[in-house]
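Tokens in:
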């Protein structure tokens, strides 16, 4: 968020420039959140995936404490993960959707 100290420290903006991006090959600029969703992964703490975090934040205790997301530095995903996120329509695809649907079936 714009009020985050790390956002200010790293001099982030809400848009970033991309060139020859494997997920968004036709794009020149992207919303930073969209870029990070497909290109980054946290380095520490929290859930193993965004899907796990969403499930955990639906826990009964989350109703009382608001749930939580650990603020951690991020690193780039692997080349293989980037290729998995590429889609035919050049808008990217959430690689965790299969994980989520499998988790729902197992509950």
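Residues out:
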């Amino acid at each position: 968020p714009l009020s985050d100290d790390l956002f200010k420290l790293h001099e982030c903006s809400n848009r970033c420039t991309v060139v020859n991006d494997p997920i968004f090959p036709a794009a020149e600029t992207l919303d930073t959140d969209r870029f990070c969703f497909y290109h980054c992964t946290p380095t520490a703490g929290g859930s193993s995936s965004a899907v796990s975090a969403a499930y955990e934040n639906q826990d009964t205790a989350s109703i009382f404490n608001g749930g939580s997301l650990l603020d951690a530095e991020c690193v780039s995903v692997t080349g293989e993960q980037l290729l998995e996120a590429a889609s035919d329509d050049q808008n990217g695809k959430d690689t965790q959707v299969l994980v989520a649907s499998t988790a729902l079936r197992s509950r």
